[in-house]
Amino acid sequence: MDEVIIVEYNPHWKALFEREAARIREVLTGNIISRIEHFGSTAVPGLAAKPIIDILIGVRSLTEAKQIAISGLETLGYAYWFDNPDPQRMFFVKGLPPKPGRTHHIHIVEQDSILWERLIFRDYLREHPDEAKRYAQLKHYLAQRFSGDREAYTRGKSKYVSFVLQKARLP
């Protein structure tokens, strides 16, 4: 079982992202990466989170990325999700069972992907600590309710995330 566990914010998460981003740039050479971002809850100072560093990588072409990224990221210990139902995203996990504990997720998308909207959410929570606190409370509640069901945990956050994105887009 892949249990949902929420922990208090760890100030080392930023450095863990920066170190991993440098390692990723070493194996994904050339001009394949147009942008790399730390996103998700570990990218928001003070926010409780699943202790998994989410990395968003922008590329010109997923077709080109598939030729390089899979083997390159496997050398860093990542597993590629070949059966991902979303053809607009490549998804990698570091620490899939039987290895102990997930530590990183990589999402590779093209520059026009809707996934970039998650940066709006991240930035809004960074700028509004009270909103981040409400989000942490929801995450704790959902983690208790759906401790063994990652998909239900994620679905439980979707309305809140949409609500915050609407607020973030207001002038």
UniProtKB/TrEMBL annotation:
> Could you tell me the superkingdom of the organism this chain comes from?
Bacteria
Q: Which Gene3D superfamilies match?
A: Beta Polymerase, domain 2
- Which SUPFAM superfamilies does the UniProt entry name for this protein? Nucleotidyltransferase
Which InterPro entries does the protein's record reference?
GrpB/CoaE (IPR007344), NT_sf (IPR043519)
Mind telling me what this protein is named? GrpB family protein
Which lineage is the organism of this entry classified under, starting from the top rank?
Bacteria, Bacillati, Cyanobacteriota, Cyanophyceae, Spirulinales
